[in-house]
Specification:
single chain; alpha/beta; TIM Barrel; 9-stranded mixed β-sheet; 6 helices; 9 strands; 27% helix
Length: 211
């Protein structure tokens, strides 16, 4: 697999935010969201075998592992890596941009599925059949850029009954939408969602890699 980076840090997003976590960031992405903060993962990376990746994870000594990107599901070898991590007792998170089918991801993994809003510029690339495979343990994430995005996400959630089917988080696009503004909207509408603040950026800084 082509791997951009492997590092251990504090999980900054999702219901696992705040937990020590080893991240496996795979290279390559088929989307170009306007707010992307990991553009370096489009092309950078080194070919590593599954055994080499597992060795790095083992040496990190952390039971929570997240596979991310880029878009990790573009590399078909990742499906076996997910299975192997689960077989060996790791808690596995898979963050995916929602444009690639999640149907064959090992059910023991927790999916963190992005739904791209219109302002991201990538909604037309979504594979909405992925919604059929979500389980209560999975999570859906919307990155919100403005009020129009928020209203769109709120309607999308209602149409697909997302909050009744899995965990949902709304994240203010870093540097574009103030967290207080999004918080007020959520509270006004009494939405059953998690506010997602990308904790790692507040801890380590917005532009630091490997954290």
């Amino acid at each position: 697999m082509k791997v951009c980076e492997i590092f251990t840090s504090i999980q900054g997003e999702s219901s696992y935010a705040g937990m020590p976590c080893t991240f496996i960031r795979l290279s390559g992405c088929n989307l170009r969201c306007v707010y992307c903060d990991t553009t370096y993962a489009y092309d950078e990376g080194t070919e590593l075998s599954e055994d080499e990746i597992m060795g790095r994870v083992l040496s990190a000594g952390i039971s929570l592992v997240e596979i991310t990107g880029g878009e990790p599901l573009l590399q078909k070898e990742v499906f076996h890596l997910i299975k192997r991590l689960a077989d060996e007792g790791y808690t596995v998170l898979v963050e995916t941009n929602g444009s690639v089918s999640i149907k064959d991801v090992d059910p023991r993994a927790t999916l963190i599925l992005d739904i791209k809003t219109p302002q991201s510029g990538m909604f037309e690339k979504m594979d909405l059949s992925n919604l059929d495979y979500l389980r209560p343990s999975d999570e859906v994430k919307f990155v919100i850029l403005d009020r129009a995005d928020y209203d769109w996400a709120k309607d999308f959630m209602a149409i697909h009954s997302l909050a009744e089917r899995c965990k949902v988080s709304l994240s203010p696009a870093f540097g574009r939408l103030h967290p207080e503004t999004l918080s007020k909207w959520i509270l006004e509408d009494r939405l059953n969602v998690r506010l997602n603040l990308q904790m790692h950026k507040y801890i380590f800084g917005a532009d630091r890699r490997g954290v």
